[in-house]
Design brief:
elongated; 12 helices; 6-stranded mixed sheet; alpha+beta; 23 strands; about 475 residues
């Protein structure tokens, strides 16, 4: 990997893979970036939450040009395959070049190219004495993946630049000029456990093998949501085999489509054989339903020691009905851009701790009223089921500016450099541009990046050739801004 061109970029990316940096674990990578800026003799600011700003003076003759901000986030999404032994808070990412020599990926985990490639790009330009540019700021944020907390906590008046290049998009040849806003919904069920019926036996039901993926970039691909599939099965098991729910968990991150979910249930012992047949039937059903979309869906039942207590029947039934009716996936496409998602919901996680069950959804939309509509729909589904519902983490969308001076310039540069027209698009995933623009009104912003496939999943990989084009494009843009 480190021998790929541009070597400076790839060497910096390698360094980032060696630093554990899942969202929430920010000190080490924040200190690393701050020390990097200081080692170059550049003005470096590290704020109280860990954001890092590094300022590089303009090249000779460009001192009076509007300042440019290169912006990316330092955290990564921690996802791994079930059979991969890995601790995201301690272990370095095992990155390698695939056999075909076209992609860099990781061994059984997310790679962190989202947004490590963007961060490494800015690092390389900060150290490049031959790069020609206006006054430059590299702005690295913390905890973007869990709630855009770094951008949200940035105070007005700190950034000096007038143009922001967000390096956090994932399709080379595309210039992003808008994104969806989002909001988290948490539904909480509290209960008092009740004794398991005498003569019952217990099974662990595991739904796995789903591809998952980024709930913004991949939500339109109709991939399976492991939580939704598990609860479809549980509804039938309760209705037909007197199953009772003991515990449940599924998904791992608010912005990742759930790949796995599991529950412990009890059933009357005499129904064991028929119940196991039911498990096999539903596994076959899910495989048929997702033929051509999913490759490895599995539904397995493993007998486990029978617990003493379980979830009350009314709580169980309300929870199952609420999950089954809760929307997941695309809710509406943009009428004027029918290939772009306008509004969606990701039924993200379900967790149980003690006598409390929490369900988390991330709702996105580029239209604020549609976001509110879907949020209220989710609230209604869980409120009727007796859950306490709270909203949090709301962030604004980024309204497109088709008259952007920087957009026009970058279109011209791309055409000249690569003899092709870039696509000008909006993205359904959340970007920090909307939040930054709220505190810095009038800032001209464009988001772009190399091609990264399957972010937020262990299949994440970045295309080497597009990284080369991306870096060339950034340098060419800086020369003319």
């Amino acid at each position: 990997m480190r021998n790929q061109e541009p070597k400076a970029l790839w060497n910096h990316f390698y360094s980032l893979t060696q630093i554990p940096r899942p969202s929430g674990k920010k000190k080490e990578v924040s200190d690393f970036l701050a020390n990097y800026g200081r080692s170059l003799g550049l003005e470096t600011i590290q704020d109280e939450i860990g954001n890092v700003i590094i300022r590089k003076p303009a090249s000779a003759g460009m001192e009076k040009h509007p300042g440019v901000i290169l912006q990316g986030h330092m955290d990564m999404v921690p996802q791994k395959n079930n059979d991969t032994v890995f601790d995201f808070e301690k272990d370095p990412i095992r990155a390698y070049v695939e056999d075909n020599g076209e992609w860099v990926t990781a061994d059984g985990t997310t790679l962190g190219a989202d947004n490590g490639i963007g961060v490494a790009t800015a690092m390389a330009i900060l150290a490049d004495k031959d790069a020609v540019h206006p006054p430059l700021e590299a702005f690295f944020t913390v905890d973007e993946e869990t709630g855009m907390y770094g951008a949200n906590d940035l105070k007005g008046g700190v950034l000096q630049g007038k143009v922001l290049l967000n390096l956090d998009s994932e399709s080379e040849g595309e210039l992003y000029i808008g994104c969806a806003g989002g909001v988290d919904t948490t539904a909480t069920f509290d209960f008092t456990p009740v004794p398991v019926e005498e003569g019952d036996i217990a099974f662990r039901i595991a739904l796995g093998g789903c591809k998952g993926g980024h709930s913004g970039c991949d939500i339109h691909l109709q991939r399976a949501n492991a939580i939704k599939l598990l609860f479809r099965f549980l509804k039938v098991a309760v209705a037909e085999y007197e199953a009772r729910l003991v515990s449940v968990q599924g998904g791992s991150l608010r912005n990742a489509i759930p790949r796995e979910a599991e529950a412990v249930i009890t059933i009357p012992a005499e129904g064991k054989d028929e119940f196991l047949e039911l498990v096999g039937q539903w596994e076959d059903l899910f495989i048929r339903e997702y033929d051509g979309v999913e490759d490895n869906i599995s539904l397995m039942a493993t007998e486990v020691p029978c617990p003493e207590m379980q979830i009350p029947e009314d709580t169980q039934d309300f929870l199952i009905h609420a999950i089954c009716v809760c929307p997941h996936g695309v809710y509406r496409m943009i009428p004027e851009m029918p290939d772009i998602v306008e509004t969606s919901n990701n039924l993200s996680t379900i967790s149980m701790e003690g006598n409390t069950i929490k369900v988390l959804c991330l709702t996105r939309s580029s239209v604020e009223s549609r976001k509110e509509e879907l949020r209220e729909m989710i609230q209604s589904a869980f409120s009727v089921a007796g859950a306490e519902v709270e909203f949090s983490g709301a962030y604004p969308g980024w309204k497109p500016n088709i008259h952007s001076r920087v957009l026009t310039l970058m279109q011209q540069i791309y055409k000249r450099e690569f003899n092709a027209d870039p696509r000008v698009v909006t993205i359904h995933a959340g970007l920090e541009c909307g939040i930054i623009g709220r505190n810095y009104p009038g800032m001209d912003m464009i988001s772009f990046g190399p091609t990264i496939e399957h972010p937020h999943s262990p299949d994440e990989r970045v295309n080497i050739a597009t990284v080369q084009k991306f870096y060339r494009f950034v340098l060419a843009t800086l020369r003319e801004l």
